[in-house]
């Protein structure tokens, strides 16, 4: 009996292998992406991280660090003994008048913990007892890009691996059809500041590039080429990748270049994401009450609320590190208008993410971090009463909060002076924060190293201590 041509094509060896567990390429992918992870040094408290990075620097003295002294001295010159010749950005470095400015909205003690949170953040305030506030952050950088780079990579200069890349390198992958490390960006709808999202914020630096973050786009498909070209079906795509993989593996056997392994792995991941990403971004299975928690902007692709919900769906499906970056906090001359708008757009989604994770039983082993690269000055930038007023960059004290993942809920750690200018107790540097995050994930920050150009590098460089009071 003669076999019909279309059945013969389906019975070829290649087609059979392509339909068996997604083909030999998928098996190769699993091997490549899990090759020699370092693993945990101790039992982890967290298995996943969602970093809600608020680019531009939220004002700690307006949102979290209540200072009666600023109310009493509103409009009066901040004492020279407090400023002490400190360095500021060029926008106020030559400004002689530095009047104290009180918080633009009241701060209230919230929950049993009594944490102070601005009335501009009602949803965050409502979950204060679930949060761990670090009110004593301090950094060395006074400008945005170096400060963000230091916070994410352990160096103010571009070129080092970002935190998510270090975790991919150290712990390996936990799923095969989505990236281990995903980055998403959003900004205020008013486009009130010119913050730039540099690719090295989620880069792999000198680590093999298979560990770099995959940037999800805010418009259209999150990643390009989710659909095959017209006339190419899945079996044909699978066969093409198997042939291409064989050529690349032959080349790799000759030159031993790890970037060839990355190329194979990325082709295979892209193939898997053609199926996984459309399902990931389909919110039709989300209950209406969950969508309502994230706020009305949750259905707008690329919004902060949309990205927060997408972050939860990513970690549910195996992604280990989600870096969500939202610009618009750089209120140099629009503090009295834009800060309230920024809080409105980000408050409910941030709190909803924490509550959503908790309701799904994911918060205990998911670490959520919220914060910017530095704080903002207790004194005014500009002239009091002018149309444009704000606060300058302030590296000497700022606040971040964390939730879940082994941190102590209901804690406010550290303190600042009467003006919110300097940390007076429990200072936490970016290196300390990095060391603590790695510790919660089961990693000794001093042992997670990579040899490059004759030196063993690590995320925390030669610094950093685990902040043990933060640990539950």
Brief synopsis:
The chain is an alpha/beta fold and about 475 residues long.
Can you walk me through this structure?
34% of the residues lie in helices and 15% in strands. The chain is of the alpha/beta class. It has a single domain, classed as Alkaline Phosphatase, subunit A (3-Layer(aba) Sandwich), CATH 3.40.720. The strands form 5 sheets. An 8-stranded mixed beta sheet has the order 6-5-7-1-8-11-4-12, with helices on both faces. Strands 2-3 form a two-stranded antiparallel sheet. A hairpin with a 2-residue loop joins strand 15 (449-452) and strand 16 (455-458). Helix 3 (23-33) packs across helix 11 and helix 10 (234-255) runs antiparallel to helix 11. The chain is globular, with a radius of gyration of 24 Å. The N and C termini lie far apart (72 Å).
Oligomer: single chain
For the secondary structure, the number of strands is 16
Sheet/helix structural class: alpha/beta
Number of helices: 15
Strand content: 15-25%
Strand order of the largest sheet: 6-5-7-1-8-11-4-12
């Amino acid at each position: 009996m003669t076999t019909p041509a279309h059945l013969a094509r389906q019975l070829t060896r290649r087609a059979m292998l392509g339909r068996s567990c997604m083909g030999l390429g998928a098996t190769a992918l699993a091997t490549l992406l899990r090759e020699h992870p370092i693993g945990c040094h101790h039992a982890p408290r967290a298995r996943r991280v969602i970093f809600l990075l608020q680019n531009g620097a939220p004002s700690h003295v307006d949102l979290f660090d209540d200072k009666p002294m600023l109310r009493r001295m509103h409009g009066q010159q901040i004492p020279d003994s407090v400023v002490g010749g400190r360095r500021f950005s060029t926008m106020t470095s030559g400004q002689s008048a530095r009047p104290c400015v009180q918080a633009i909205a009241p701060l209230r003690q919230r929950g049993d913990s009594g944490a102070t949170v601005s009335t501009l953040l009602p949803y965050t305030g409502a979950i204060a007892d679930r949060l761990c506030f670090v009110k004593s952050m301090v950094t060395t950088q006074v400008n945005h890009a170096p400060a963000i780079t230091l916070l994410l990579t352990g160096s103010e200069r571009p070129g080092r691996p970002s935190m998510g890349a270090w975790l991919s390198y150290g712990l390996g992958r936990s799923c095969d059809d989505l990236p281990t490390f995903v980055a998403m960006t959003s900004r205020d709808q008013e486009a009130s500041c010119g913050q730039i999202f540099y690719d090295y914020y989620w880069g792999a630096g000198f680590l093999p590039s298979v560990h770099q973050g995959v940037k999800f786009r805010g418009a259209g498909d999150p990643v390009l080429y989710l659909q095959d070209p017209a006339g190419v079906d899945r079996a044909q795509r699978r066969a093409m990748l198997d042939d291409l993989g064989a050529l690349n593996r032959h080349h790799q056997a000759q030159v031993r270049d790890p970037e060839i392994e990355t190329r194979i792995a990325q082709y295979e991941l892209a193939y898997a994401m053609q199926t996984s990403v459309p399902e990931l971004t389909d919110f039709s299975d989300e209950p209406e009450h969950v969508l309502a928690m994230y706020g009305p902007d949750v259905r707008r692709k690329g919004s902060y609320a949309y990205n927060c919900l997408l972050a939860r769906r990513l970690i549910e499906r195996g992604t280990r590190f989600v870096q969500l970056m939202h610009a618009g906090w750089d209120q140099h001359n629009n503090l009295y208008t834009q800060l309230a708008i920024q809080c409105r757009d980000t408050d409910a989604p941030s709190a909803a993410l924490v509550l959503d994770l908790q309701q799904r039983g994911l918060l205990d082993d998911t670490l959520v971090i919220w914060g910017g690269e530095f704080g903002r000055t207790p004194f005014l930038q500009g002239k009091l009463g002018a149309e444009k007023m704000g606060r300058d960059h302030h590296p000497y004290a700022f606040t971040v909060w964390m939730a879940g993942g082994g941190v102590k809920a209901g804690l406010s750690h550290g303190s600042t002076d009467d003006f919110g200018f300097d940390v007076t107790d429990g200072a936490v540097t970016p290196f300390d924060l990095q060391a603590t995050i790695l510790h919660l994930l089961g990693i000794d920050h001093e042992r997670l190293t990579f040899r490059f150009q004759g030196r063993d590098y690590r995320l925390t460089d030669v610094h950093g201590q685990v902040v043990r009071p933060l640990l539950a």
